Amino acid sequence: MRANQIKVRIAASGQPALGGSLNVYSPHIVEVYGALGFDWVFIDCEHGVMSESEVENMVRAAEAYGITPVVRVPRNSASVILRFLDLGAMGIVVPHINSVEDAQRAPDAAKYPPLGERGSNYGTGRNNSYGVGQTNVRDYYEESNHETILFALIESQGGVDNIDEILAVPGVDGTWLGPADMALSMGMPDPSVVAAALERVVETTLRAGKISAATHLRPEDIDGVARFYEKGSRVLAVTALALLKSSASDWKDAVTDRLRAVTPS
């Protein structure tokens, strides 16, 4: 079982675990993230369009560069969560965790007994190297439970209201913030109201001794990333599309301004 680099970084005196996210199929961009020294990659299968076999290729790319693949599954379903874990995901983000009942379903699917009810593919799955090199299957199950991180995506007023009960569910390792959907669920209030709700989730997560992920900030909002880190969030990310839009726009504007000063021959 590979070491989960998110856990490795956090264990190293609370260092940040920096990731890049994708919602389109591109093993190459996963490799670029790895070559640049990112710790993990977020593969979004709720809003993305990748097939399971395509996700498997992106997971392989992450493994080749020693970064940890985290997948947002499309729904809170035991069979769906199992399939992404079996293809090699080491982190699972489960959307629409609005209640304790929602939260209880997720670890049942993601963790082996006694923590959950995950079915075994030991000896036949790439997630356990097809059983090669394993000397004790019990050790594998325990190690997998430890290295697999399960995040509850908190993206509604209900999730905020029930955050204490959600975090009390065994097997929920942390929270993942969903500010856009949270704002929608609240009726698009003043941004300060949403910010206060996000801060409540972060603070409650840390009090429970669990992991806080804040991955929604714009590439240029470095101060915002620093604020979440200061509050205790250690899992931080930027999206490939946001980086592309930002850097491409800056390049286009810079070239346009420079060419205005040039007299064509």
Descriptive overview:
This protein is α/β, with parallel strands linked by helices and 265 residues long. The chain has one domain (5-260): Phosphoenolpyruvate-binding domains (TIM Barrel). It is 47% helix and 15% strand. It has helices at residues 5-11, 27-35, 52-64, 78-86, 100-110, 137-147, 157-161, 163-167, 179-185, 191-207, 222-231, 240-260, and strands spanning 17-22, 40-44, 68-72, 91-94, 149-154, 174-177, 211-214, 235-239. The protein has an eight-stranded parallel barrel, surrounded by nine helices. Helix 3 links the parallel strand 2 (40-44) and strand 3 (68-72). Helix 2 (27-35) packs parallel to helix 3 (52-64) and helix 4 (78-86) packs parallel to helix 5. The radius of gyration is 20 Å and the shape is globular.
**Rg on CA atoms, Å:** 20 Å
H-E string: HEHEHEHEHHEHHEHHEHEH
- CATH fold name, please? TIM Barrel
Side by side, the strands of the main sheet go: 1-2-3-4-5-6-7-8
The total count of strands amounts to: 8
CATH superfamily: Phosphoenolpyruvate-binding domains
Report the CATH architecture: Alpha-Beta Barrel
Mean pLDDT: 95
Helical proportion? Answer: 40-55%
Give me the number of helical elements.
12
Task: State the low-pLDDT regions, or none.
Answer: none
The rounded distance between the terminal residues' Cα atoms is: 63 Å
